[in-house]
Amino acid sequence: MVRPVLRRLVLLVPTFLGATLLAYALLHLPPGEPVLLGGDAHGNQVALEVAGVGRPESEGLLRGYATWLTRGARLELGRTLGDGRPVVERIREALPRTLLLSGLALGVAWTGALVLGALVAAGRGRAVDGFIGLVCAVLVALPGFWVALTLLSLLASARGLPLFPLQGLVSEGHAQLDLLARARDVAWHLVLPVASLSLAALGTLTRHARAALLGALSEGFVRAARARGGTRSRVVLRHALPHALTPLVALAGALVPGMLGGSVLVEHVFGIPGMGLLTLEAVQRRDEALVMAVTALAAAVTLLAHLGVDACLLWLSPRLRASEA
Amino acid sequence: MLPLARRLAPCLLVVLLACKREERTQAPVAVTRPSRAWLAGVPVPESSGRTPWRGGTLTLRVPTEPAGLNRLHDVMRDAYMTRYTVGPLYETLLALDRETGALRPLLAERWEVSADGRAQTFHLRQGVTFHDGQPLTAVDVKGTLDVVMDRGNLTSAIRSELSDLEGSEAKDAHTLVVRWRRPSYPGFRTLVAAVPIMPASALREGFNAAPILRHPVGTGPFRFGSWESGASLTLMRNPSYWGDAASLERVVVRFVRDATVAGQMFERGEFDLMTGILPAQWRGMEAPEPRNAWAIRGYQRLSVLENTYSFLGWNLAHPALADRRVRQALAMLYPGDEVARAIDLGLEPRTTCPFYSASPGCDPEVTPFPHSPERAAALLEAAGWRDTDGDGVREREGVRLGFSLIVTPQSARMARLAPLLKEHLRKGGVDMRVEQVEWAVYVQRLRARQFDAFALQWSALDSDHDLYPVFHSSQTEALNYGGYHNAEVDGLLEALRREFDEGKRAMLARRVHRLVYEDQPYLFLSNRLALDAAKVRVHGLTPSLAWYDLRRVWVDPPTVAAPTP
Prior knowledge:
heterodimer, A: 325 residues, mainly alpha, 12 helices, 0% strand, globular, B: 565 residues, alpha+beta, ten-stranded mixed sheet, four-stranded antiparallel sheet, 20 strands, disordered N terminus
């Protein structure tokens, strides 16, 4: 099982290079220039010259990319146009927040989907199946920002039930609390953002969990297990579920980029200064250093997630292992 | 977005809301009708005899988080940041009086002007110390000015306002002489009222990424406390302030970008001072209904006319737009009343003036062109534009009368205004196309003059601003994007730069106003009102173009709960 993983690890390199090269090209092909100032285009020009920012006209696309790559390999990611702080420092600040948020959201969606999927599969054809199916279809269809704003106005605004905080990850005076109270404070702040981010994924995953479980339940080995006298729940949990996990694990990897994309909206609405807002700032300013760093990081996270998923699948599925060997 | 959410909300969580509704009907709230002052956004005069309480925290919301805390830095020119740093944290040589607008002493006790107007001597106040304990001297002022004028620093925007400055010299510890290549009124005003004085010791290492940009050290009544990136900034009272100390113990500035979310936090009572209320919310809390009781009873509204105007700028090299009659006709086709009512909810006063509308620089006799499709048609006919082929659009020598307006997707107001304007222009036989352009491209196209028409707004924090870069014919490389040229206006703008006398300045400015409005290089749209609200426990907030004087603001002490029998 080690060799297939290694082979995939090697394949990651060209994929990563391709993704970042594409990002670099997309950043440089369209018209427009970095923005330092708001309304003052003249001042912008002067300021850009002072800051030494501008488009190196002579440097070709490939050469420019090569320069970025060699610097990036030494973690020289430059400074942001916005506040002039090192890109690495900004990312170190933002990344943990987004990882916490999207990691939790993915975990919640995945676990929830498994439970709901099992419920639905167990009650196939009954009302619960139809109801949860409908709810999932709605969840998948709802736009993320709408979900976020609706949750806010229902469960955080003065007009609804103000149960949860509206903004941020921590309350004021958070630093003075003891460890347990701090954790509780963060958890309290995370409820709505995690819910907004995970609901759509929950819908998708549940539908797939249902399909996978139903598929597994119609397999011969399940019938055999039933014939040996296993109870219905025992058969679902012990025999069908492990079999159905394979597509769910694969999907979780595919959902990672969606989580990163969704975090832009959720972070904007809930005021969480994570990678999403950093990406927004980078794109709005055409901040080359920041756009490239953020893209490279997103590419790396996505690729590593896929690698992890592949490793999991190899471990989970004897059939896959056999075909790879 | 939100109204839809509100409408659909009951379907989703019927049970939760049902409980809430019941609660409300059981305890009906006596509805007070909002007072006239409340509606107008004028604070109720303080009842006399109450001494300000020393202590407490003021939490205020602002919509933007700045890149840093220094208004001299090009990237950090955020209007709100300037307001809560210059004055509270940093101080300038002189200050503009909040009521009269006249210059009065601040860090400089007095100043003298040389006979030729090219040199000023400032006598600095004795006994002023920076927050780090070092005394303020003329060397610090000179150091700050040198930072601004150094071409290697990211201070180009403020440097362009001080382009006539020759240099400064510290005569002794408390005397500073500033020399000018030629007298410059806007330069002088910027120098004395907009340049925050920083300690020279903090500027030696270079300015562009200096620690002082994120950790300001000034002389003001508040000192820097902490900055939680993405969340808030805390200012603390400066106990060793040279003047009357502030009443507040702390000021917490919370950065809440999303307007809808900020509105909800406001309603939950999370801010003592809410700024940047959306027009829809401002209007929404006016009805004397129980759902508005929190606002009518718990808050006072604060509103003031800002020095900001929105406009459509024309490219005067465009074959049709080069003709003044066409531009005037477009102004007559602009549905001003409809925009004011339907889009701006009556909260954006129309303007004709490129200066601050409440200043003597605007000629009160200049009135907007009336909305008159008939007069517009006559002007267009006179300019040779007729609809000869009956397709509803006028043409001249085979060329259709039309233009493309570039707008940025960020402008929510323009997204609603442009379609309305398009419809009205179409009725007048003018074909307007709307082109959405992202900001990075927008800026580039403005400078390269690759547009027919653009939508923008100019803002200034001062009541007096220099129009030379915007309308002088030599400034097409600067802010005169459309290429406006009028020899008389050129002369007036030059004279305005040299004239220090207020009365004479007003006369010159009024002439500029009249000429520019007649020439219509811009289709002037409207001014903006600041829409803020503060809890009734907050005192000493006087709406002003110069924002609030945080030093004078105080809050009621927290009430001790009465013991229950």
